[in-house]
């Protein structure tokens, strides 16, 4: 099982000081956080993609390429690549290039995004969001697997005898996660291709997450990729820790109250009851994260959001120390207990390459 962090890259004033970091400071902080993730033994760093204030990560492959040059083991991913508004040809080429630079330490999470104005900024119609996601990914899937592509669809100009370059490293495309909070069509899409399904459940109660994952697992089996239990599932999560839970609640409350993703909504106490958000001690984080398996089954990837809402970089790095030293080692051990032998590990470039070599022998 893989553990890591994802960032939405928001530039938010620190409510305790009133200071807002510059865009440069926030971008550099994201890099520092990724480097810290590798240092403390996490497996994955993932960045979102946004094209509107107050967010900065508009070019994920640029950031991930820079991080690749400064890390050795960390898997570099997106927590959203906008399959709806990005051109599939550009996605194919950008991420294949990143694969080569990172020696295969790359995967990608497709998503539609949740910012409506992005669609017209890139010449798209939000009312076609699902159809764009389906058609664009169908093309991307072929571009990574066929040396010469002839293609015609509804949303872009046709391709005739087209070869995207560079080709995927070792002829193995990056593993794809399809991320969705609320769209069963995306769970169906992930199942159809035998790809991973990532439910970023930081806003949602467990019963909703359970229904989405069960749908994906059932359809994964329907399409002949394996049993429902062998489907590849990832979950989001959100934590803030201190040694003493009361200190964690007191320190995090002002950040929670103004957070751009949920501020001015339910109280901190209501939100922690209803969603995976955990604010407390490392042991409380361990207990709540382990409970995800009760409704998600045995899954492959757990990512945490830790660097948003104006939290200072120093505080985030302290959080990562706690996560790496006190939380993840216990989670690795506990999630491994009673894990059925036929439940696959999270895919990596090496495992996908090995699987490809077996099937071609």
TrEMBL record:
Q: What name has this protein been given in UniProt?
A: LLM class flavin-dependent oxidoreductase
NCBIfam families, A to Z: LLM_CE1758_fam (TIGR04036)
The protein's matches in InterPro entries, at most eight in alphabetical order, are given as: Bact_Lucif_Oxidored, LLM_FMN-dep_put, Luciferase-like_dom, Luciferase-like_sf
Q: Which domain of life is it from?
A: Bacteria
One Pfam family named in its UniProt record: Bac_luciferase
Key words of the record: Monooxygenase, Oxidoreductase
Write out the ranges of the annotated region (Disordered): 1-21, 340-361
The question of whether Oxidoreductase is a record keyword is answered with: yes
Q: Per the UniProt entry, what species is this protein from, by scientific name?
A: Streptomyces hirsutus
Could you tell me which residue ranges the Luciferase-like domain spans? 1-294
What spans are recorded as compositionally biased (Low complexity)? 9-20
């Amino acid at each position: 099982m893989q553990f890591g962090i994802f960032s939405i890259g928001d530039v938010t004033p620190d409510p305790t000081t009133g200071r807002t970091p510059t865009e440069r400071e926030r971008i550099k902080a994201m890099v520092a956080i990724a480097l810290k993730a590798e240092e403390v033994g996490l497996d994955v760093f993932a960045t979102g993609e946004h094209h509107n204030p107050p967010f900065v990560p508009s070019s994920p492959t640029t950031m991930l390429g820079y991080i690749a040059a400064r890390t050795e083991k960390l898997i570099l991913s997106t927590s959203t690549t906008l399959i709806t508004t990005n051109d599939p040809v550009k996605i194919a080429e950008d991420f294949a290039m990143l694969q080569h630079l990172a020696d295969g330490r790359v995967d990608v999470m497709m998503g539609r995004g949740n910012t409506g104005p992005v669609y017209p900024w890139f010449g798209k119609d939000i009312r076609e969001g699902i159809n764009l996601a389906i058609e664009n990914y169908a093309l991307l899937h072929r571009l990574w697997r066929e040396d010469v592509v002839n293609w015609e669809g509804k949303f872009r100009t046709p391709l005739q005898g087209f070869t995207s370059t560079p080709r995927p490293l070792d002829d193995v495309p990056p593993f794809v996660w399809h991320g969705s909070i609320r769209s069963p069509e995306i769970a169906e899409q992930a199942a159809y291709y035998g790809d991973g399904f990532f439910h970023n459940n930081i806003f949602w109660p467990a019963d909703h997450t359970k229904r989405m994952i069960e749908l994906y697992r059932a359809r994964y089996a329907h399409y002949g990729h394996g049993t429902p239990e062998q489907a590849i599932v990832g979950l989001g999560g959100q934590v803030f820790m201190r040694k003493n839970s009361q200190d964690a609640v007191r320190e995090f409350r002002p950040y929670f109250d103004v957070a751009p993703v949920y501020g001015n909504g339910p109280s901190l106490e209501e939100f922690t009851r209803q969603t995976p958000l955990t604010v407390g001690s490392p042991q409380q984080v361990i207990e709540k994260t382990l409970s995800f398996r009760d409704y998600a089954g045995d899954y492959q990837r757990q990512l945490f959001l830790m660097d948003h809402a104006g939290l200072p970089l120093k505080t985030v790095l302290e959080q990562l120390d706690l996560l790496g030293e006190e939380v993840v080692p216990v989670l690795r051990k506990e999630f491994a207990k009673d894990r059925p032998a036929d439940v696959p590990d999270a895919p990596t470039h090496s495992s996908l390459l090995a699987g490809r070599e077996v099937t071609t022998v």
